[in-house]
Amino acid sequence: MKTKIAIASDDLGFEYKEEIKKYLINEKNADVVYDPVKVKTDGINTYAKLADEMSILIQKDVCRLGIYICGTGIGFTCQANKHWGIRAVAVTNPYSAKRARLSNNAQIIGLGCRVNSLEYTKMILDAWYDQPFDFTTARENSKKNLLEAERNDNALLVKPAHIAWNMGFRANE
Questions:
Q1: CA separation for the pair 114, 73 (Å, rounded)
Q2: Which residues, including other chains, have CB under 8 Å from residue 123's CB and lie 6 or more apart?
Q3: 91 is in which domain, residue-wise?
Q4: From the UniProt record, which GO molecular function terms apply (predicted)?
Q5: Cβ–Cβ < 8 Å for 70, 47
Q6: Count of domains in the chain?
Q7: Is 105 left (phi over 0), alpha (psi -120 to 50) or beta?
Q8: Full pLDDT tens readout for the chain, 173 residues
Q9: Which of 33, 61, 111, 158 is surrounded by the most beta carbons within 10 Å?
Q10: Is 161 part of any domain?
């Protein structure tokens, strides 16, 4: 089964996004279900809007993963993290990307075209994409932290009615 994934960029990250999209489809057998930036100018001043759209798609279980590429990946992930159940991280190296997924079950990764070369960015993507969180083998501390993160989201954020899955806080039920 193909992994459904969302991808977006600002105008700075557009060329990287196009290459990463091809890489996901051709090398990772992914199904890109969201790619709103069709031309470079579509990405100008849109990171907040795109972060909101991608987060809602993940909440609705249209896909469970997302990638955003801009100068650093930071602004987008800050905006995405305002959404109930979303764990988004900007990463600059493969080890942090791997741990983002294995320790935090992060659904969104922010990548910076001004930070790393395209080939190194693919290595970062591989580290995050290729090793999904597995509740049967995950550290107990990671699972406890996910449950605490859910309690925190419930205390601080409004859970939207459109949430269609457990957002990766718990094993699939």
A1: 10
A2: 94
A3: 4-156
A4: intramolecular oxidoreductase activity, interconverting aldoses and ketoses
A5: yes
A6: 1
A7: left
A8: 899 999 999 999 999 999 999 999 999 999 999 999 999 999 999 999 999 999 999 999 999 999 999 999 999 999 999 999 999 999 999 999 999 999 999 999 999 999 999 999 999 999 999 999 999 999 999 999 999 999 999 999 999 999 999 999 999 86
A9: 111
A10: no
The pTM assigned to this predicted structure is: 0.96
Strand partners, 66: 6, 108
Is residue 164 situated within a structural domain?
no
| Residue 163 domain-assigned (yes or no) | no
E strands, 10-163, where?
31-34, 65-70, 88-90, 108-112
CATH number at residue 10: 3.40.1400.10
Closest to 9 (Cα-Cα) out of 57, 64, 70:
70
Q: How many CB atoms lie within 10 A of CB 139?
A: 10
Residue written as token pair 């790619």: 35
Report yes or no on 94 lying in a domain.
yes
Token duo for residue 130 = 């290729």
- For residue 23, give both structure tokens: 């890489």
> Are the beta carbons of 91 and 111 closer than 8 angstroms?
yes
Pair of tokens at residue 152: 């925190």
